[in-house]
């Protein structure tokens, strides 16, 4: 988005001791938001079978609780940069954390699947504003020469969510209640708001253009229909003609947005950024990798519980090994990239990641637990 690209080009270096202290806290503060979001995602995946039984559904049908969240994120992420420029990044960030916390409470008190889905949609709206705006604050506060170190440190709290989430969620579901997997966001949310109020100053652009409503509606229609259509493939939840029509609408909306973006001075998603080779490659290649990496925790949680008959706690103790491996690697990621370069590291890492995901597909009920943990640890 334009706000993030501009921020990356001209971060404001801190000049006073208080500003220096605040800049050092920014990665941790934004990391709290990422931690809350990633913790929420991992505990929901682990708790899905138990939640399905409690709500009178099946784990596959209850997957809508995850996809509804992702759908809301996809629709509202494009508007986050404009909202930060228009209303102030600090104000939007605080509001997003508060709304995420309140919607977590709404998820916990849901009595049926429709209520849970509605609460997850609101939670997705908050998440769409929370993490991107937090990164905008990071880019505009931390000096350029410290960005690599800050981004590496930022990912540590975010990775603690997947590390803690599976065993914590499994423990709560097995020995307490699935409602607690959402209620644990309350203290994290209050901590995040306190830190933002304490260390983050308001960051706001002057002369912000009006919101590109046409672009927002076209991009929202494209993302919403495509996410819904792809999620419905293989689940037999709608007739084939309706499914194909939904995907066709998404493609048409996407093409129309492409035409609209070229004719608009301030499009909500600036597609001209894709002309920058490094940005385009990192976006397209990174997303391909995230498709597989992001699906793995959910698929493993389902496989271990539904396929192998393990308890949520046992499944969580196994799947957390992947995130633990990723967390350990973050402490040496910066010197490795500086020593071998981005291109070589990313290329080799993509091959290794794909290989370990393929190995996970060979797991069966007879596979020793220690072997699964070892594979997930190294793969992570």
Would you tell me the structural class of the helices and strands? mainly alpha
User: Which regions contain 5 or more consecutive residues with pLDDT less than 50?
Assistant: 1-14
Number of strands: 0
The best one-word shape is globular
DSSP strand content: under 5%
Separation, N- and C-terminal Cα atoms: 29 Å
Q: Mind describing the biggest β-sheet?
A: none
Over all CA atoms, what is the radius of gyration? 21 Å
Q: Name the CATH homologous superfamily of the domain at 2-211.
A: MFS general substrate transporter like domains
* CATH C-level label of the domain at 2-211: Mainly Alpha
What's the tally of helices? 16
What string, H for helix and E for strand, traces the elements in order? Answer: HHHHHHHHHHHHHHHH
| Helicity, as a percent range | over 70%
Tell me the CATH topology of the domain at 2-211: Growth Hormone, Chain: A
Average pLDDT for all residues? 80
Which second-level CATH architecture of the domain at 2-211 applies?
Up-down Bundle
Tell me what the structure shows.
The protein is mainly α. The chain has a domain of 210 residues: Growth Hormone, Chain: A (Up-down Bundle), CATH 1.20.1250.20. The chain has 16 helices and no strands. Helix 2 runs parallel beside helix 8 and helix 15 runs antiparallel to helix 16. The radius of gyration is 21 Å and the shape is globular.
């Amino acid at each position: 988005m334009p706000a993030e690209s501009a921020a990356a080009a001209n971060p404001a270096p801190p000049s006073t001791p208080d500003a220096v202290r605040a800049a050092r806290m920014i990665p941790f503060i934004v990391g709290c938001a990422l931690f809350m979001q990633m913790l929420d995602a991992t505990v929901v995946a682990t708790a899905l079978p138990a939640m399905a039984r409690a709500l009178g559904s099946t784990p596959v049908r209850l997957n809508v609780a995850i996809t509804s969240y992702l759908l809301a994120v996809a629709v509202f992420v494009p508007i986050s940069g404009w909202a930060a420029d228009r209303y102030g990044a600090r104000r939007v960030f605080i509001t997003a954390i508060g709304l995420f916390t309140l919607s977590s409470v709404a998820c916990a008190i849901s009595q049926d699947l429709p209520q849970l889905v509605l609460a997850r949609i609101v939670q997705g709206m908050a998440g769409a504003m929370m993490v991107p705006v937090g990164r905008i604050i990071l880019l505009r506060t931390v000096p350029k020469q410290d960005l690599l170190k800050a981004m590496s440190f930022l990912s540590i709290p975010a990775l603690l969510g997947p590390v803690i989430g599976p065993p914590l969620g499994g423990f709560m579901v097995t020995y307490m209640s699935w409602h607690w997997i959402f209620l644990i966001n309350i203290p994290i949310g209050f901590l995040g708001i306190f830190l933002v109020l304490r260390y983050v100053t308001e960051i706001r652009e002057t002369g912000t253009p009006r919101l590109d409503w046409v672009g927002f509606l076209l991009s929202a229609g494209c993302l919403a229909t495509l996410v819904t259509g792809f999620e419905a493939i293989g689940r037999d939840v709608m007739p084939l003609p309706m499914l194909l029509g939904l995907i066709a609408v998404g493609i048409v909306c996407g093409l129309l947005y492409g035409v609209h973006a070229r004719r608009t001075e301030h499009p909500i998603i600036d597609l001209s950024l894709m002309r920058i080779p490094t940005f385009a490659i990192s976006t397209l290649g990174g997303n391909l990798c995230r498709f597989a990496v992001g699906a793995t925790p959910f698929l493993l949680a389902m496989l271990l519980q539904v396929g192998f008959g393990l308890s949520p706690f046992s499944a969580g103790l196994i799947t957390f090994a992947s995130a633990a491996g990723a967390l350990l690697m973050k402490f040496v990621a910066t010197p490795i990239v500086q020593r071998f370069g981005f291109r070589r590291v990313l290329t080799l890492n993509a091959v290794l990641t794909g290989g370990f995901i393929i190995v996970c597909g060979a797991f069966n009920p007879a596979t020793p637990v220690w072997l699964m943990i070892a594979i997930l640890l190294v793969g992570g």
